[in-house]
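agent> Task received from the user: take the single chain below, predict its 3D structure, and emit structure tokens. No templates, no multimer pairing.
agent> Plan: (1) validate residues, (2) run structure prediction, (3) serialize to tokens, (4) report one or two observations.
agent> Step 1 OK, no nonstandard residues flagged.
tool_call: predict_structure(input=
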Amino acid sequence: MNKYFQAVAAILIAVFLFSSCKKENHNHNHYPIPSNLKLLASGYAEGSATRIDVYAADSFFSGYNSLYLALYDSASNERQTDADVTLMPMMSMMGGMNHSAPFENPATAKPADGLFTCAVVYIMPSSTGNTWKLNITVLNNRTGLQGTAALDVNVLQPSLSRMKSVTALDDSAKLFISIVKPFVPVVGVNDFEITIHKKASMMSFPAANDYTTEVNPQMLSMGHGSPLNVNPVPDNNGHYKGKLNFTMSGDWRVFLKLNHNGAVADSTLYFDVTIP
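)
tool_result: status=success, residues=276
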């Protein structure tokens, strides 16, 4: 009889442990937030029963912002990992005018690490009378509930610009060119990635994939450039990828020429970079 009770007890313990593990797999501890990310904003998507936490490696800034969204059930605090997420950044300006900015929605409704990866290219910093909101719409595919959160964000101007706007010479298009990589440049060969977006209207900034580029890093104080650079070429969704070679520490100026349909679109672009 004692052996019978021992067997039953062992079964009950196993069931309890299995149940605990199943619950653990659904809560937020199963999807830890990487330590290099900072919580920048948080709010509720009313109607979807979802809280949204917005993370990034740095503060919101004028330029290309890689963002990571963690979704939580507003009642149980369990992580939600099956949802369609869409963005709409909006700036309210003095005088009653509004405009949006380029953005990238998450590529999947079921991220393996529980974080919905997206991006916003803030085309100007926040200022007195000019304020940004990040509108995030969530459709919870498990419950069918949908709602939108309107999060206040403060967009800073970095000391070295990571986004430039120009008017193209060939077709007068308003272009926004942003640095994605390197975020922290180093001596040697760096991955170089930019995005190019066109302004179609105050609310539409589509990705532009039909440009060719020429890159030329120069150390002006020393009067030299560098070898082994690779011109960025179109990759996808307005992204262009190449290589930059910084041969020594110090201040560099990266000149970037844009060509479009066989004509020069802009030859005045440059980004200043400091290599520690």
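agent> Step 4: summary for the user.
The first helix runs from residue 2 to 26.
agent> Done.
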